Amino acid sequence: MEFSKSFYESILNGMLDLVRVIDIDGVVVFCNTKMKEEFGDQTGKKCYELFCKDSRCEDCIATRSVRENTRFMKYAHYKDKIYYVISSPVYGQNGKAVGTVEVFRDITEQRKIEERLRRQNEILRRDLEFAKRLQQSLLPVIPRIEGYRITYTYKPCERLGGDFLDVISIDDKIVFYVADVAGHGLLASMVTIFVKQSIIKNAHTYINSSAQEIMKGVLLDFIEMNFPSEIYITIVLGILEKQSGKVTMISAGHVTEPILVKANKKVKMFSMRGQPIASIDLEQGFEMKETILEKNDKLIFYSDGLIESKNKQGEMYGKKRLIKRILSIKNINTELLIRDVRNFVSDIDDDIAVLMIEKI
């Protein structure tokens, strides 16, 4: 079946893109309707005249398309518009390229949208970087406490994390905790700021009452803030009495159990019931446990990212491996624990917070 020239022209004229056909000498031999509407009829003119030039462009894609027998693309600017231009070879009856067909697509609005997105992303990047610095600035500077060594390590899996920890010295007591906000990123990191401020306030208010009163105060603060219902926090909190070494612990839905490693290498884990800090008071209360730190004892609080990190085979780091490493690594500290996790897993995909108190 053969088709006439007018048949092909009708197809090109029906296109929404701008189309022109250029012969091997660079002369425009055809413009479709959309091309004429945009630029006027260019038929009989040199292809480069459209862009107010007196010779072919150095990177003329029409010439390259004919010479290399393939399609080429470039961006062209005309007045205040940007076009994406595709030049493809046109073949004669002998199979040789006799010219090119060029398709112009107006991408001006697309470029404007891309530029707006680029600017917005840059603003977001700066905001995230600021939020990261802000969150890091809120991490504790460990107070020097005679008779105790406190270390911690905090590793967010993204720029910003949902885990957090703090150490607060109040008179003859030390309040310390590890918290885990559901999720990662900006929202979770902003909630950690709430956690810090709420615990500081309630710890100072109820330090001489009980750990339960502190946690209840944090829960009420959270409810008053009216956070989205999908946001919740788990916390494991301890109060250390410096003189006696007594530690009172309490959990708000925190799934990881504090680990006590005695000087004689015996290990005890503390399981505590308690509701998470959420938008509804489930009236489940918060269970407390107590222990006494003696010389060379270590008490470790941590988030679930530490034990739930997986290797390439899908095996979790786990509590057993954690305890084994605590017992086997000489002069263990939180940084050495994190390093061991990194050596085990293929990629850490959750935030990790670890806090250790050792009586020396």
UniProtKB/TrEMBL annotation:
**Coiled coil, from the record:** 107-134
* Pfam families associated with the record: PAS_4, SpoIIE
Organism encoding this protein: Caldicellulosiruptor diazotrophicus
Q: Provide the organism lineage as a comma list.
A: Bacteria, Bacillati, Bacillota, Bacillota incertae sedis, Caldicellulosiruptorales
Q: Where is the PAC domain?
A: 66-119
Q: Report what the protein is called.
A: PAC domain-containing protein
- Keyword Hydrolase (UniProt): yes
Q: Which domain of life is it from?
A: Bacteria
Keywords assigned by UniProt, alphabetized: Coiled coil, Hydrolase
